[in-house]
Design goal:
The chain is of the alpha/beta class and 249 residues long. It folds into 2 domains: 27-77 and 153-249, Rossmann fold; 89-152, no CATH class. The protein is 40% helix and 20% strand. The protein has a 6-stranded mixed sheet with strand order 4-5-6-3-7-8, with helices on both faces. A two-stranded antiparallel ribbon has the order 1-2. Strand 1 (12-20) and strand 2 (29-37) form a beta hairpin. It is globular, with a radius of gyration of 18 Å.
Length: 249
């Protein structure tokens, strides 16, 4: 277990970075200050729609090229990014999508691990199916299993729990927590539901109008929160803090 994660060197540490969309009149600027994530940490970005959460993930991943994305790529051995919209190639089967991505990325994927993860996530007999034969929730689970099969150091999740039922979501979160604690996987994520944030986040960055305003650590260990009811999660002090922040944005 990585109980001493904060005594280690950060996986990523950024003192300041700025970004704006070129060619867009009055485009808001994304400003990143004093951001860091440690091995074995789960960070959620929280804020209203349009505040810059997806821009942050796109900058991290290199979807938006910048000096920041180049720096991230040089410090992370393998990065996985599950975008809000599925990136599965529609003309390839589920398994062929994994094999093709491995060839394009020149980074080996563990197909056996992928199939094992599919079973954990409640996906059965889907390896020969095309993406159009899968529901939204199934495609999201396939994307997650595919990303984890590359054994990433850093996993980016953009609203990746939307459309997944509560029972399956609990299994997925338990698997993510196992990898975070056991393998040192780091995760940066967004979620539509506050309960999802409270369930597995190590820390929460509050985002308002392109600015990371504040970092808040959740005191109750994730291992305990995974077993908590929705009512108990909403009763956490951090839940009130998130709701108050939303009302002030």
């Amino acid at each position: 277990m990585i109980s001493d994660r904060y005594s280690k060197s950060p996986l990523i540490e950024i003192s300041k970075s700025q970004f704006s969309y070129d060619g867009i009149a009055d485009a808001s600027e994304f400003i990143l200050r004093d951001f860091r994530i440690f091995p074995g940490e789960i960070i959620f970005l929280h804020g209203r729609s349009g505040c810059g959460k997806t821009t942050f993930l796109n900058l991290m991943s290199g979807v938006l090229r910048s000096n920041l994305s180049d720096s991230i790529r040089s410090s992370v051995r393998c990065l996985g990014y599950i975008m809000h919209d599925s990136t599965l190639l529609p003309w390839l089967s589920v398994t062929d999508n994994v094999v093709t991505e491995a060839a394009l990325r020149r980074h080996a994927a563990n197909v056996n691990e992928f199939e094992k993860l599919c079973l954990i996530c409640g996906l059965y007999k889907i390896k020969d199916l095309l993406p159009r034969q899968l529901s939204l929730g199934m495609r999201q689970r396939v994307e997650l299993c595919k990303a984890l099969s590359f054994n990433p150091d850093l996993l980016l999740l953009d609203e990746s729990f939307t459309g997944i039922d509560a029972i399956t979501k609990a299994k997925i979160m338990s698997e993510l927590h196992r990898r975070v604690e056991g393998d040192g996987l780091s995760i940066i994520a967004t979620a539509h539901q506050i309960v999802d944030v409270l369930r597995i986040a190590t820390r929460i960055y509050l985002v308002d109008n392109g600015i990371l305003c504040k970092s808040v650590a959740i005191k109750v260990p994730c291992s305990e929160r995974l077993a908590m009811s929705v009512q108990d999660l909403i009763a956490l002090p951090e839940a009130s803090m998130l709701l108050e922040f939303d009302s002030q944005c």
